Amino acid sequence: MTEGKLSEDEIALYDRQIRLWGMAAQANMRSARVLLINLGAIGSEISKSIVLSGIGHLTILDGHRVTEEDLGSQFFVGSEDVGQWKLEAAKDRIQDLNPRVELKFDKQALHEKDEIFFQQFDLVVATEMKADEAIKVNKLTRKLNIPLYVAGSNGLFAYVFIDLIEFVSEDEKLRSIRPTVVGPVSSNRSIIEITTRKDEEDETKVYERIKTRNSYKSLEEVLCTATLKEKLTRRQLKRVTSILPLTLTLLQQELNEGSEKIGFELLNREAAAWCGKLGVPMAILNDEYMQQIINQRYIEFAPVAAIIGGTVAQDVINILGKRLSPLNNFIVFDGVTLDMPIFEF
Amino acid sequence: MPRETSLVTIIGEDSYKKLRSSRCLLVGAGGIGSELLKDIILMEFGEIHIVDLDTIDLSNLNRQFLFRQKDIKQPKSTTAVKAVQHFNNSKLVPYQGNVMDISTFPLHWFEQFDIIFNALDNLAARRYVNKISQFLSLPLIESGTAGFDGYMQPIIPGKTECFECTKKETPKTFPVCTIRSTPSQPIHCIVWAKNFLFNQLFASETSGNEDDNNQDWGTDDAEEIKRIKQETNELYELQKIIISRDASRIPEILNKLFIQDINKLLAIENLWKTRTKPVPLSDSQINTPTKTAQSASNSVGTIQEQISNFINITQKLMDRYPKEQNHIEFDKDDADTLEFVATAANIRSHIFNIPMKSVFDIKQIAGNIIPAIATTNAIVAGASSLISLRVLNLLKYAPTTKYTDLNMAFTAKASNLSQNRYLSNPKLAPPNKNCPVCSKVCRGVIKLSSDCLNKMKLSDLVVSIREKYSYPQDISLLDASNQRLLFDYDFEDLNDRTLSEINLGNGSIILFSDEEGDTMIRKAIELFLDVDDELPCNTCSLPDVEVPLIKANNSPSKNEEEEKNEKGADVVATTNSHGEEGIVILGDDEGEIIIDAEPINGSKKRPVDTEISEAPSNKRTKLVNEPTNSDIVELD
Fold it and tell me: What values do phi and psi take at A97, rounded to 5?
């Protein structure tokens, strides 16, 4: 893809978003190459949003065939496609969203992909995969220094994990009465530089351009060491959603046993242990949610996928456009209450 | 396993059946609407009706994923329905129309729905659908996005806040004198170019009589007011140049606007005591022809290029003028009108030492374009779809026992409201007891056959309402749409007229108030006239609504309305020339800025607007007004 200035056609097409993130970010996005692993419900949402946004290149890796169940949560496939390769069914529909984006569709299995394959990408998004697979991908992305997003859902409940390894972001905001100061702002984020500029029309307004260093941990490390102790106040700890320990339990279960099935007793016991590690009271667990997350395990649901996919795609666009501070580093979503906290591990 | 397997696992067999037999209305098939349509199709709503007035535009394609280049200029509603066919499993009914058009969408048409999803881009329609939802007690899921900011709010009539319970962002206003005499920002010059200059030259009637008695000039300086009036009259002279189609006279326009008028301003010394003086163009700048620079939309040319572009574009519009019946409206997507406004604004900016702007930037300000992206729309639509399950009480393990336990949703991280929350999900507040729409009055629907309109006398209607709800003798009756008095103790002139003779018809809303009680009065009732041709002749059925006695001082105060009406003379930036009130923030798509020195519509549209500022939850305004880094979000 050509670097440099946007054409008048591109400016007209992307008008409503250029007004949000500027010409430079739009031009940056055009040179970016992204890999999306798995075109499920969340993958469909992510590919839709980033193809519309005008990213340079997207490779979608998916070796599944369309099932009847896919029809209940995915919009790139129809009933006439059942039994076909999902990528074959979806590819024209995806390309149709934005003919300017270079798309590649790859049906090869993930485990057959090597370092050289991954090397060609600026960013990897892995959806709807087991924790053991995700950790393998994460090891590669760490080795190759590629940002990684992992997203998955269990019915109404979902999570996003982000590993950008280390990422320096620049934000601009209006200076408040208390100017921003250089130094750590949280366990994973530290402000390293602040420059100011005056508004060209209103001299009383001063903008701060803030450089923040975001550091990240691997998924493997998060699953070993995640805690909220000393990060949240006692009151905040009491209000942490039970989806957090439940999600972590399910992810770890996939590592320990490689097993998909988990019974109520085991989940209860392991989630309680996670509460201990996190430093949250066990009282946040409730039987109904535990039963539901077991029932709904691995289930895809369109509106949940829309929210999770939108969240991931927005962050991908932000970091490719080199704007705004990225997510850091673990988000869970409760589709019953629409609660969607961000945790730093 | 069949396609509904996952859904059934999540909501259960019974709820699945209920969903399959439910019917919903989706208002808007644009940014949020495309996303919502996809979500609610995949959630297997039995029947989905989609209303959208718009056609597809190129600038929609970055987010409205159901539309393609080849669909440009096609209706959104029908195109969307075609685009979803491969994954659709619901009955879809598209309408290309305005949801506020009562003849196409009468009140009883709305009654067929179990729930309404709003995916709108303007305040007028949001208010209208909210009102419909209140009259019919239909749950409404309201939503909106602007760039990274998004919100979703379920509205359960009588149980939770309605759309009008919290104060909405009001359009920006500028005093006339800032626009006419002392601009200090690019927007002042753009508003001048678009609303005064362009309208005066190309869109106004060719007569010089402006009603300016009730203008608020934003200044008491008599000299300046005189100058503004004088200048307005001179603009009519300029219009004659346009009509003459004599391109050689265009420099006269430049001379008048950018030399003579500026010199007159300079002569008013009061204005420049604390301000930098403007510098008029020179004769040589106007009369030295330069070659036209076809500059890119995102760059700013030199002043000399602006001047020569102004001359060229004026000539072009001059040629168009007679071909378009001597009337050209400003339209941000009409490149000629945009270019004219941009060059005129930039020349004025240059004169006043204000930075010039690119056409791209001026388009945003002049067209009031709101940035819009796919991701925010997807997130907000997802939240709307999810909460509909709880509004319809379809989640057995999370039963809806109290509607105020349900959640609204805001983008928290993206809107810079919180660093540790992607969405915030405050619980719904109960109705604001001062809300003019949902709480100050009782509401109901009068079902009328159309013959009744022509037969029934006003006095008959008054009597039957009085008797039905036990009002005392002394009452008043207003046409609520324009605050027209129809009846009170010393106004009985209309008594013998039929309803149609006094211009009551389908969609009219009347307000019936107790004017008698000293300490306790009967609460006022607003009644919607729903005329239905299907009804048998002579049908006029009043709703069974309980109208309670309340303390007397709770009645809507007319004095406030009048006060408000009198001070509405600031120059107001609003959505469109039909006088609808402007939405600046909530839209997914553009409206227009209009500058208008008269009170909007001259009506008392929102009588108690000023009272609702102490509304219980005002987070939406907060989201929009004061993005900060602090975590304002408190849950539970």
Answer: -60, -35
